Amino acid sequence: MLKIKSEDGAVLVLSIIIILVLTVLVTALVGSINSNISFTKRHENDIKAYYAAEAGIEQGINVLLIDRENIDNYISDNSNDTDDEDYIKDYKNDSFNDFESFELRVKEGSGDDEYDFKSIGSSGSDVTKIIYTTININSEMGAGMFNNALTTEGDLNIDLSDWSGDDETKITGDIYASQLGVDDKFSFAKGELLGDIYANEIGVFENSGMEMNGNIYADQISKHHGQKFAVSGGKINNIYANEIGTFEMSDSDFITGGVHTFSIDANQSFIEPKSLENEVDSFGKIIPDFSEYFENDGNVYLGNENNPDYDGSVIELEGNKEYNNFNKDGSGIIVVNGDLDIKNNIKANKDNDEDFLIILVDGDISTSMHIEGNVFMYASGKINIDNTPGGSSQGQGNPGKFEVNGSFMAEEGITINDSRNQGLNLTHNDKFVEIFEDIGYGIPQLGSNNSGSSGSSSTSIEIVKWQED
After folding, report:
1. b/e for 270-282, b at 16 or more Cβ within 10 A?
2. Shared-domain flag, residues 299 and 167
3. Is residue 4 part of a domain?
4. Which helix (H) or strand (E) holds 463?
5. Contacts (Cβ under 8 Å, ≥6 apart) of 428
6. How many CB atoms lie within 10 A of CB 26?
7. Does any domain span residue 456?
8. CA-wise closest residue to 255 among 236, 268, 274
């Protein structure tokens, strides 16, 4: 008889085998989970380190936009404290918490107005990311504030309503004015305006023949009693305004683009206002601070009242006096503490495209329409240019022409009045900014009380290179 042996031991062996297999699987699974957690954590730290490095670059850009001199001084004062890539160490350091931080290093770039940044971001104990970038900062427009033919934080009034001569009347460049035609009017009978107009408020605007290829941007247009925006000739491209009051136009063809507004009080049947998608920004302070030029007593040369000595440096003229003629060639800066009254003419570099004369007046400027050459004028008060018989700056004899390459800037207002049909030709040219840099005390900047938006940006930047390691 065949006997079958007991199988009790086989169950034990099978159980052990199953346990071993499960142990191996669990160990592998735990290892895989730990590996995934480690990878995820590493990836997360990589991302945090990258963002920390990027924050360092943004910090450098912000300093360039707000206070470029800070970086220039740091480079100058720490030029010997560099690492192996010639970056000046420890320009900026910042810690977000115990795990994330950046170290920002800087050096001069290879090109003009270029800066090289190296930002080392860290997260955790051994995770770092490095970003190299080259930033070009654009200040050739004199911080953007000199990029206009006419600029005032007061009222701009131009009266060429009686102009009927054959001489050219032309303004090439933008116009910035807190108010335009509020105290008097902004009136053209003919001519060209090749640029845009920016104003918080427009009062009396009359165009009976001016060809304007740019746009008008304003918060309010002719909203008050006695004010009117009237177009009876010429051309205007587009008008953008948050509010429009009294608006008269004899022919819809005078507006080649359209009238864009949120609201218009007085409308004509052929005017079909277009919806204004975005509010027109108002601006606050757009004129830089020239006080250093009036306060600094160094490098000043005095001459007599009609023929001041001029050596291409900074000259100071006595203010609150009347000058007959003002004829100077060469690049330089004239500083006047007090009002400047020139009865006859101003001529500066009339036949020379390279040189520029800068006239800075801590007071009012009054002169006739006879201004020729390359000139930048600034007044802390008002600029009054008047060829009207009996006007405050009426010259003697032939008043001559107004033919200027440059710019006019006044804190409290600008008035241009020509009833003698001599013509006006103003072409914006910001080459004078180089004179501030070359022989002056640097480019004047906006003060800390700047609250504007349109046209008030002090600098612009361009990212020339971006490399991540």
Report:
1. ebebeebeeebeb
2. yes
3. no
4. strand 460-468
5. 147, 148, 149, 172, 173, 174, 195, 406, 407
6. 10
7. yes
8. 236
Strand-pair partners of 172 = 194, 427
Tokens of 430: 């910001």
User: What integer is the mean pLDDT of 260-275?
Assistant: 72
How many other C-beta atoms lie within 10 A of the C-beta of residue 352? 13
One-letter amino acid at 232 equals: S
Pair 72, 220 in one domain: no
Would 10 be classed as within a structural domain?
A: no
> Do 110 and 223 fall within a single domain?
no
Q: Are residues 135 and 152 in the same domain?
A: no
At residue 363, does pLDDT exceed 60?
yes
93-130: b (≥16 Cβ within 10 Å) or e? eeeeeeebbbbbbbbbbeeebbbbbbbbbbbeeebbbb
pTM score, two decimals?
0.64
Measuring CA to CA, how many Å separate 38 from each of 49, 54, 217? 16, 24, 57
47-85 per-position pLDDT tens digit:
888 888 888 888 888 887 767 777 888 888 887 777 777
Same-domain check for residues 372 and 422: yes
Look up the domain containing 90 and give its range: 34-77+86-139+451-468
| Rounded distance between C-alpha atoms, residue 362 and residue 430, angstroms | 21
On whether residue 3 sits in a domain, the answer given is: no
- Detail the DSSP E strand segments found in 227-313: 229-244, 247-249, 255-264, 274-275, 300-301
Q: Which two tokens stand for residue 274?
A: 């277009």
**Domain count of the chain?**
2
Nearest in space to 208 (alpha carbons), one of 189, 194, 195: 189
Question: Based on the domain organization, do 239 and 326 belong to the same domain?
Answer: yes
Tens digits of per-residue pLDDT, 11-23? 777 878 888 888 8
With 0-12 / 13-18 / 19 or more C-beta atoms within 10 angstroms meaning exposed / middle / buried, residue 34 is: exposed
Residue 260 predicted with pLDDT over 70: yes
Q: Give the pLDDT score at 5.
A: 57
pLDDT at 455 over 50: no
**Does one domain contain both 204 and 287?**
yes
Asked if residues 400 and 423 have their Cβ atoms less than 8 Å apart, the reply is no
In 292-379, DSSP assigns E strands to: 300-301, 314-318, 321-328, 332-337, 340-348, 357-362, 365-367, 371-379
DSSP bridge pairs for 82: 88
Q: Are residues 236 and 113 in the same domain?
A: no
